[in-house]
Amino acid sequence: MKYSEAKKAIEGLSSKYSAYKDADTDFFNVFYKNGEVAYLKTNEQYSLVVWNEKSFKNLPFSNKLYMILSELAMTPLDDRDEENKYYIKIRYGFNRFLNINTLTGDMSVFSATEAYGFKTKFNYKEIEQLKRRNDIPLDWDKMDLVKADD
């Protein structure tokens, strides 16, 4: 389970829940009505801490919350973060990005917008696969990777 998936699932239980991965510490924190109710360490697998067992049991959807946190705690550390995705920008030209047709696999050059049927965001593994394709006639030294905001 990804941190983003856990956050979405937890905050979907009730508008009174919030969750976030603290960039300054090694914790994924869970709050109910602005009070911290649980956390897990982001640098250790299987590390889940509930602040007060009695109070936790009385939270709305406490069993579901615990299951979400347990699944996240069991997830290997390397699998919890989202992979960064990148646009492949052709260095010479305005609004020129690699587009791959998701049905045919054909390449085209157009905008960075992911429209229906076209993929424009790629992780490093996908980029390495694209570089090996003979049907993509690009000089990869003349491409720039631009981080995509998701």
Structural class: alpha+beta
Roughly how much helix do the residues carry, as a percent range? 10-25%
- Stretches where pLDDT is under 50 for at least 5 consecutive residues are none
Alpha carbon gap, first and last residue: 17 Å
CA gyration radius, whole angstroms: 21 Å
Number of domains: 2
Average pLDDT: 91
- Report the sheet with the most strands, covering strand number, pairing sense and barrel closure: 4 strands, antiparallel
Share of β-strand residues: 25-35%
> How many runs of DSSP E, i.e. beta strands?
9
Oligomer: single chain
N-to-C series of helices and strands: HEEEEHHEEEEHE
Global geometry: elongated
Describe the model.
The protein is of the alpha+beta class and 150 residues long. It has two domains: 77 residues, no CATH class; 62 residues, no CATH class. 25% of the residues lie in helices and 28% in strands. It has four helices and nine strands, in the order αββββααββββαβ. The protein has a four-stranded antiparallel beta sheet with strand order 1-2-3-4. Strands 7-6-8 form a three-stranded antiparallel beta sheet, with no helix packed on it. Strands 5-9 form a two-stranded antiparallel sheet. Strand 6 and strand 7 form a beta hairpin. Helix 1 packs antiparallel against helix 3. The two termini are 17 Å apart.
